[in-house]
Design brief:
- This protein is of the alpha/beta class.
- It has two domains: 430 residues, ANL, N-terminal domain (Rossmann fold, 3-Layer(aba) Sandwich), CATH 3.40.50.12780; 137 residues, GMP Synthetase, Chain A, domain 3, CATH 3.30.300.
- It has 22 helices and 35 strands.
- It has a seven-stranded mixed beta sheet. Strands 6-5-7-10-11 form a five-stranded parallel beta sheet, with helices on both faces.
- The two termini are 44 Å apart.
C-alpha cells in the first residue's frame, strides 16, 4: 500500500459537472425567487443555511413543493434543543411524496439476492402492490400511530410494506433476520406492534438460515400483534402453519377492489419510523423520527449531497437493521431507481458488488469504508474487470475512509470519480457531514457539512475550533433530530444521550476536525480515543497506521487508565491467513504508529486474536471491549444479539479474567 498524505487533492469537478449539479439549480432558484446570490459558492450557501435555519428550511419546503393538507403556522418554534418543533400544524405523508410524480413505466426498484436473478420492478407495479398491502394492513386494523414491524431482509417486499404502513400514518420499524432472537424481541417488545412482517429464512454466503422458529418465538412475545404477513423467501413453498393469524405474501397482494392509495396525513412532527441504536450496551434505544423531518432531510441530502435525480440508479449495501436502508428507500423521493442486494457482498467472489454495478448501470455505489479497504487489501482491480462507465460516485460511511481508500478508488475503480465519504448516524437517519458534487475531493476528508446543519468542533470547554480535533456538535436544531425516544416519558434518556455534555447543544460522540477550507475529518468515536500523557488521538489514526502492515487483516485498540496516571493500551490484531504475529511484525506495527501517529501512542501490548467483535453493521466494539477488560460484566455492556459474531467475545472475557488474576497477585 502506497502512502498518501491526508488532504492530498485527488479530484476536481469540471465546469459541466458543477453546472449540472442539483445544488447549482437550487442556488439559481434562490437567486430568482429569494434574491439570494451565492455565486455558486457552497461555503457561502452553507453559512446562510445555518445562520438562518428557519429561512433555509422554508426554502426547502418551497423548492420541493411539499404537499400539505393544512398550512403551517410557524417554521420553527424555538432554537432551543431539545424541544424545537418545525412547520407546526402542517399535515403531510412521506409515502405520498414518493408516489406523487412517478413514471408508471420506469423501473423503480432493481433487486437481487445471492440465489436469485436480477429483477426489475416498475413504478406501476410498486404502486399496485403497495395498494394491496395497504388494504391487508387495514384488514388487520392498522391505523395512524400503530406500529408495523418487519423481521425481513433488504428485499422488494420490505419496501412495499414500509410504503403501505407509512401511507396509513402507521409507524415503521425493521430488524434484519440475522439479528439474534432476543435482540429482535428487545426491540419490538418495547414498541408493541400491531402487525409483523417476516420471512421463513434467508441465505448468506451460500448457506441457508431457517428463521421460522425465530419468527414464532418473536410472535409469542408480542401480545399486541393482530396479524403477520409471511413472505416465503428461503423456500418457495414455505410452510407458515406454525405462525398464528398470518397471511402469506401471495394472499396479501391478491387483486383488491381499491385502485389507488388513500393517504393518512399526519402532523409534521408526528412519527414516521422508529430506529434502534445498535444496542451494544443494554436494551437498544428506540429513536423516533418525524414524517416531516425525514421528508425534508432526505429530499435535501439525496438531491443536493448525493445529487440524485430521475436518471440515477442508486445503491447502498445495507440491511433493514441499519439506518442506511431507510436512507436508500428515501432515494425514491428523487425519482431515482434504487438497487437492493441481499447477501454477502463478497459471495461467490469478492468482486460481487462491482459486478452488480456493471449489470445495473449503477450511478451511485454506497457501501461501508470497511468494504472499500477490504477490496484494497485484497488487491482487487474492478476497473480492469467491469464496465463502470455509468458510475459517477462512490459513497461510503460506517467508519472513516482512510486516505489510502480514496486513492485506491481512483487507481483501481475509475479516474473520473466523485468520492463522497459521509458521517452521521441512526440518531438522525442521515449524514451530518457528506459529499458535494461541486467541490474537490481530498484524501481522507469529507467534503462538507450538510446544508442546514450547524456542525462545529468543540473543545471540552465548549469553544469552537478550526483545524483542531474536537467534539462534533450541532449548535442549531435540524428537522431530522429525534422527536423523542419511545417510552421516554420525561425525555431524560434522550437528554442524557445528546445534551448532557453541553447544555442545549447536541454532542454526537465523534471526534471531528474542520479544516480551514471547510472540509472535515472524522477520527472515530470521542469516547474511544487513546489518551497518552494528555495527548488524545482518534482510533481511526491508529488503524490507518496498522493497515500499512501487509500481514495484518484488522485491528482494535483500547486505552484503559490504571488509576496512577498511566494506562494499559492493548492492540488486538487479526492476522491474515497463514501469517503470525511475530516480533518482527510487532516492531513493524510499532514503527508505523510511531511514524504516522506519534511515539507516545504506540500500544503497550499486542495480541493476535481470531476475530474482532463487531455489530451487525460491521462496526468494531471498542467501548464494550474496553469495559469488559475493566472487569465490567459482559451482560451490562454488550447485547450479544446485536453482534455479527458473538462468539468473538469469548477471547476477551478469558483475557479479562486472566488479567484480573495477575493484577490480584
Amino acid at each position: 500500500m502506497n502512502a498518501i498524505e491526508e488532504g492530498t487533492l485527488l479530484w476536481e469537478p469540471g465546469q459541466k459537472w458543477r453546472q449540472q449539479a442539483n445544488v447549482s439549480k437550487y442556488m439559481d432558484w434562490l437567486k430568482q425567487h429569494k434574491a439570494l446570490d451565492f455565486s455558486h459558492d457552497y461555503t457561502a450557501l452553507w453559512n446562510w443555511s445555518v445562520n438562518y435555519v428557519a429561512d433555509f428550511w422554508e426554502s426547502i419546503w418551497e423548492y420541493f413543493q411539499i404537499q400539505s393538507t393544512a398550512p403551517y403556522d410557524e417554521v420553527l418554534t424555538s432554537h432551543h434543543m431539545p424541544g424545537a418543533k418545525w412547520f407546526t400544524n402542517s399535515k403531510i405523508n412521506y409515502a405520498q411524496h414518493i408516489f406523487r410524480n412517478y413514471d408508471a413505466g420506469k423501473t423503480a426498484i432493481i433487486h437481487q439476492s445471492e440465489d436469485s436473478d436480477l429483477r426489475h420492478t416498475s413504478w406501476k407495479q410498486l404502486y399496485k402492490d403497495t395498494i394491496a398491502i395497504q388494504q391487508t394492513l387495514k384488514r388487520f386494523g392498522v391505523e395512524k400511530g400503530d406500529r408495523v414491524v418487519a423481521y425481513a431482509p433488504n428485499i422488494y417486499e420490505s419496501i412495499v410494506c414500509f410504503l403501505a404502513a407509512s401511507s396509513l400514518g402507521a409507524i415503521w420499524s425493521s430488524a434484519s433476520p440475522d439479528f439474534g432472537t432476543q435482540s429482535v424481541i428487545d426491540r419490538f417488545k418495547q414498541i408493541e406492534p400491531k402487525v409483523m412482517i417476516t420471512v421463513d429464512g434467508y441465505r448468506y454466503n451460500g448457506k441457508p438460515f431457517e428463521r421460522l422458529d425465530v419468527a414464532k418465538s418473536i410472535q409469542a412475545e408480542l401480545p399486541t400483534l393482530a396479524g403477520t404477513i409471511a413472505i416465503p423467501y428461503l423456500h418457495q413453498e414455505a410452510d407458515f402453519s406454525p405462525l398464528t393469524n398470518h397471511v402469506t405474501w401471495d394472499k396479501a397482494i391478491e387483486d383488491c377492489s381499491a385502485k389507488s392509495l388513500v393517504y393518512t396525513h399526519v402532523e409534521f412532527n408526528e412519527p414516521l419510523w422508529i430506529l434502534f441504536s445498535s444496542g451494544t450496551t443494554g436494551k437498544p434505544k428506540p429513536i423516533v423520527h418525524s414524517q416531516g423531518g425525514m421528508l425534508l432531510e432526505h429530499l435535501k441530502a439525496l438531491t443536493f449531497h448525493v445529487d440524485l435525480d430521475e436518471s440515477d440508479c442508486f445503491f447502498w449495501f445495507t440491511t433493514t437493521g441499519w439506518m442506511m436502508w431507510n436512507f436508500l428507500v428515501g432515494g425514491l423521493l428523487t425519482g431515482s431507481t434504487i438497487i437492493l442486494y441481499d447477501g454477502n457482498p463478497a459471495y461467490p467472489e469478492k468482486n460481487r458488488l462491482w459486478q452488480l454495478a456493471e449489470e445495473t448501470k449503477m450511478t451511485v455505489l454506497g457501501t461501508s469504508a470497511s468494504y472499500i479497504t477490504s477490496c484494497m487489501k485484497d488487491d482487487l482491480e474492478p476497473e480492469k474487470s467491469f464496465d463502470l462507465s455509468h458510475l459517477k460516485c462512490i459513497a461510503s460511511t460506517g467508519s472513516p475512509l482512510p486516505p489510502e481508500g480514496f486513492q485506491w478508488c481512483y487507481n483501481h475503480v475509475k479516474k473520473d470519480l466523485w468520492i463522497a465519504s459521509a458521517s452521521g448516524g441512526t440518531d438522525v437517519c442521515t449524514a451530518f457531514i457528506l459529499g458535494m458534487p461541486t467541490l474537490p475531493v481530498y484524501a481522507g476528508e469529507l467534503q462538507c457539512r450538510g446544508l442546514g446543519a450547524k456542525i462545529e468542533s468543540f473543545t471540552e470547554e465548549g469553544h469552537p475550533v478550526i483545524d483542531e480535533v474536537g467534539e462534533l456538535v450541532l449548535t442549531e436544531p435540524i428537522p431530522c433530530m429525534p422527536i423523542y425516544f419511545w417510552n421516554d416519558t420525561d425525555g431524560s434518556r434522550m437528554h442524557d444521550s445528546y445534551f448532557s455534555m453541553y447544555e442545549g447543544i447536541w454532542r454526537h460522540g465523534d471526534y471531528l476536525k474542520i479544516t480551514d477550507r471547510q472540509s472535515c475529518v472524522i477520527y472515530g468515536r470521542s469516547d474511544a480515543t487513546i489518551n497518552r500523557g494528555g495527548v488524545r488521538i482518534g482510533t481511526s489514526e491508529i488503524y490507518r497506521a496498522v493497515d500499512y502492515v501487509p500481514d495484518v487483516a484488522d485491528s482494535l485498540i483500547v486505552d484503559i487508565p490504571d488509576g496512577n496516571g498511566d494506562s494499559f493500551v492493548p492492540l488486538f490484531v487479526v492476522m491474515k491467513d497463514g501469517c503470525e504475529l511475530t516480533q518482527e511484525i510487532k516492531q513493524e506495527i510499532k514503527q508505523q504508529i510511531r511514524t504516522q501517529c506519534s511515539p507516545r501512542h504506540v500500544p503497550t501490548h499486542m495480541y493476535a486474536v481470531p476475530e474482532l467483535p463487531k455489530t451487525l453493521n460491521g462496526k468494531k466494539l471498542e467501548i464494550p471491549v474496553k469495559k469488559i477488560l475493566q472487569g465490567i460484566s459482559v451482560e451490562s455492556v454488550v447485547n450479544a444479539g446485536s453482534l455479527s459474531n458473538p462468539d468473538s467475545l469469548k477471547y476477551f472475557l478469558k483475557f479479562a479474567k486472566e488479567r484480573q488474576k495477575i493484577q490480584a497477585e
